[in-house]
Amino acid sequence: MAARPSLAAGVSRREVWAWAMYDFANSGYTTVVITAIFNAYFVSVVAANQDWATLAWTAALAVSYFLVMLTAPVLGAYADAYAAKKKLLLLTTAGCVLGTAGLALAGPGNLALAIVFIVLSNFFFGSGENLIAAFLPELARSRSLGKVSGWGWSLGYLGGLISLGLSLAYVSWAQARGDQASSFVPVTMLITAGLFALASLPTFLFLRERAIPQPHPPGRNLIGEAFARLGATIKHARRYRDLRRFLICTVFYSAGINAVITLAAIYAQQVMHFDTQQTLLLVMVVNITAAGGAFLFGYIQDRLGHIPTLALTLLGWLVMIALAWAAQGPVLLWAAANVAGLCMGASQSAGRALVGLLAPAARHAEFFGLWGLSVKLSAIFGPITYGLVSWLSGGDHRLAMLITGGYFVVGLLILAGVDVKRGRRAALRKDTFR
């Protein structure tokens, strides 16, 4: 792999590997805690399968996403002003690792404890996700942002697979001994937390903070300055109209992605009657496909262009929706799942790269914070819409899945108005406002 021409001046392969290792490290959290193991454990064991159990789980996640939305732009503005991305990343990593380990304390009836630790761990995860993304424009040349973003995202899916594989190996061993979920699921939380801490070490050892602290207005405290920078950005938002349009686009197409990710297992079980083993196998295979999609489409993005590549992935999502809606047996659903995996890795990686291209150098962390706000808003918006359609239609999951496709259609329409060249010129313009 000819990595060197893709990297910015002074950036080594080892440093890019260290950056990508953070994607590897944190993906275990989403795979094991949010998607595959702890979510089901929360509903069935902690909340004892009460009617409100699923609502309690989604509400806890919504609170954490809302907290990220409130804080991400301000944290980003602070990180830019004080060149503090790496310091804040260390803080958010410690918070997520400790919060994940704290989930091991949640057993039958410990609902409040489980909710506190899921809110904290997911808040720190989301905050760290924005901060690590803000390093991307410092590491890759502008023509190679898609490729380098794809390296990290594809490695991330492999990290999720390893965390899930280790957890499932322990679960199988514990079940063979006759242990109950209340005994073995807490151990998987410790495995996930430990792997996150261990795999993120290269990031903190080798990734450099290249940003330079910026001049600070006299008589203004740290928080006040961060809010002032954010206010100035909002005031001058017209200067970045293409980035602003793309962030709105992100809210819509990510709402569709988040609905599919959050509810795919439920769809497989309710519509196709998959059992737990089949569902977990589906999750593992989709992670492999997503890793390949992120890697492959990163190269396609830098050759074909950011907008055409992202549009191609959104069209792929519409194909996936059609396949899932039409599926009467497992064959079409497996096809839909693999199309989703291919598009999931590609569209998420492509979005991160495009933000890196359109964000001004002096405000990378701040604009990636705004990107995080868009993604987390969609994480609330998309699944709730699916749930409402399912509820109002008397449990018609096929209709809910079909309605989800509307998010990708709206995303495509908004994306058509994004002018990358104009947006890049705006990003390169000297930042003269404070």
Description:
The protein is 80% helix and 0% strand. The two termini are 41 Å apart. By secondary structure, the protein is mostly helical. Helix 7 (145-176) packs antiparallel against helix 12 (276-304) and helix 12 runs antiparallel to helix 13. The protein has 17 helices and no strands. It has a single domain, classed as Up-down Bundle (Growth Hormone, Chain: A), CATH 1.20.1250. It is globular and about 60 Å long.
- Give the distance, in angstroms, between the N- and C-terminal Cα atoms: 41 Å
Instruction: Give the amount of beta strand, in percent.
Output: under 5%
Average pLDDT: 86
Number of domains: 1
Number of helices: 17
In percent, how helical is the residue content?
Answer: over 70%
Shape: globular
Structural class: mainly alpha
CATH class division:
Mainly Alpha
Count of individual beta strands: 0
Q: What's the CATH topology label? A: Growth Hormone, Chain: A
How would the blueprint of this fold be written?
Layout: H1 13-36, H2 38-46, H3 53-82, H4 85-102, H5 111-133, H6 136-139, H7 145-176, H8 181-199, H9 201-206, H10 222-235, H11 241-271, H12 276-304, H13 306-326, H14 330-358, H15 364-392, H16 397-415, H17 420-428
